[in-house]
Specification:
It is a single chain. By secondary structure, the chain is of the alpha/beta class. The strands form four sheets. Strands 1, 2, 3, 4, 8, 13 and 14 form a seven-stranded parallel beta sheet that branches. The model has no long low-confidence stretch (mean pLDDT 92).
Length: 459
């Protein structure tokens, strides 16, 4: 059985999970389920990033020590993923002692190979991003993501000799040996190479909540460097090293440079095989505005589950706009789509057919009908897949309207008339399986048992 390894970023525990985290993780779960349907042995990794100055600061505000705070928020992420029917193979936490040991071992390897060196560094640091920013990256002197002025930091750090590995990484990326998708992300990475890149810091001197650098106890490992290592450490902790390298890293746009350049360089320096594919999804706004706690428009995915149900929430997250492009989300638009696509669409179709109480001996799937679906799923075109499904729902409703089975008196004739519709519904259920695993099963159950059930109560 061939193996498939998929990862999400690990999420920072400075705050509870929001719809952005859910968007990436639901997509990863859909892909993991799809690969399992194809007979692959799948390892799906997600987790939480728990070190750094921002965590220490958030913990202090909450009146807890960093570990207690991390324990609490990490648990909220686990509960949220369970509420969304997300089933990771492993949930990694960077405060796991095994992760800490392995992260130290990886960086020690780079140190022993002579790829790390010490120097004084002066730069603008944003605690919100947990990274140094250049003047070019600021907007009116502020971090564009956190709308706050970065602080000027002067400290002695350990640096990774990135310049030594840039030619190799550039050749790998430009030559397409690693897929970076969509094309806009690929072109952006090529643009970053042209701008030129400096060596980067792998440690911090004044951040206490972190993993100590083994050869220099005055330093802790820079949080995002250690976070990248989770993809490698998790397989060792879970005793699944044979899944390396990752088949796909899923992530949002803001961490592209870290993954497509820095991460590849670190792996190359350590003589570790590189990931096969990096896929970057877009940003989304909420009601046309950037998601912000200050504005108060942050959407809790658990609230969506209570309002729409688990499977419907999964559908609504991925059906708003193409995966890989920017778009807008709002609860009002979700409600409209829920009623149009789910209550009046799929739900109504299944109810119309179930009303005729057909005796169905076998449920068959025409694989030829799944050809376009399979191609779109391989390309992670989830939005287009869901559009394809809704087109099939419309085809079924049109067939019913054309044949008007309610006018037919003979039971055998009704069955003969509706069987093509039933077969299409079976295909729809199969296509929905990675997106809506519970509803997919319920559709087949309704067709078999002839027990009508309202799949999506109208809101």
């Amino acid at each position: 059985m061939s193996k498939f390894y998929i990862t999400t970023p690990i999420y920072y525990v400075n705050d509870k999970p929001h719809i952005g985290h859910a968007y990436t993780t639901v997509a990863a779960d859909v892909l993991a389920r799809w690969q399992k349907m194809n007979g692959k042995d799948v390892f799906f990794l997600t987790g939480t990033d728990e070190h750094g100055a921002k965590i220490a600061e958030a913990a202090e505000k909450a009146g807890k020590n960093p570990q207690e705070f991390s324990d609490q928020v990490s648990e909220e992420f686990k509960k949220t993923w369970k509420n969304l029917d997300i089933e990771p193979s492993y949930f990694i936490r960077t405060t796991n002692p095994e992760h800490e040991k392995l992260a130290v071992a990886f960086l020690s390897r780079l140190y022993e190979k002579g790829f790390l060196y010490e120097k004084d560094y002066k730069g603008l640091y944003c605690i919100g991003c947990e990274k140094f920013l250049t003047e070019k990256e600021l907007l009116e002197g502020k971090c564009p993501d956190h709308n706050q002025k970065p602080e000027m930091v002067l400290e002695k750090n350990w640096f990774f000799n990135l310049k030594e590995f840039l030619p190799k990484v550039k050749e790998i990326v430009a030559g397409g040996k690693i897929k970076i998708e969509p094309d806009t992300a690929y072109q952006e990475v090529l643009g970053i190479f042209k701008q030129g890149l400096d060596d980067f810091s792998i440690s911090r001197q004044k951040v206490k909540w972190g993993i100590p650098v083994p050869w220099d106890k005055t330093q802790t490992i820079y949080v995002w460097v250690e976070a990248l290592l989770n993809y490698w450490t998790a397989l060792k902790i879970a005793d699944h090293e044979d899944f390396w390298p990752p088949d796909v890293h899923l992530m949002s746009h803001d961490i592209l440079k870290f993954h497509a350049i820095y991460w590849l360089a670190m792996l190359a320096a350590a003589d570790v095989d590189l990931p096969r594919r990096i896929f970057v999804h877009g940003y989304f706004t909420i009601d046309g505005q950037k998601m912000s706690k200050t504005i108060g428009n942050v959407i809790d995915p658990n609230v969506l589950v209570k309002k729409f149900g688990v499977d419907a929430t999964r559908y609504l997250l991925l059906s708003r706009f193409p995966f890989g492009k920017d778009g807008d989300i709002s609860e009002a638009k979700m409600k409209e789509m829920y009623n149009a696509d789910l209550a009046n669409g799929i739900g109504n179709l299944v109810a119309r057919v179930a009303r005729f109480q057909l005796r169905i001996d076998k449920l068959r799937i025409a694989n030829c009908e799944l050809k376009e679906y399979k191609s779109l799923m391989e390309e992670l075109k989830f939005y287009e897949v869901l559009k394809l499904i809704m087109n099939k729902v419309k085809e079924c409703n049109d067939m019913i309207e054309e044949k008007k089975p309610w006018r037919i008196k003979n039971e055998q004739e009704i069955k003969k008339t509706l069987m093509p519709v039933v077969e299409k519904i079976i295909i729809i259920a199969e296509m929905l399986k990675p997106f809506m695993p519970n509803v997919s099963g319920k559709i087949l159950e309704i067709l078999k048992t002839r027990k009508s059930e309202i799949l999506f109560p109208r809101i």
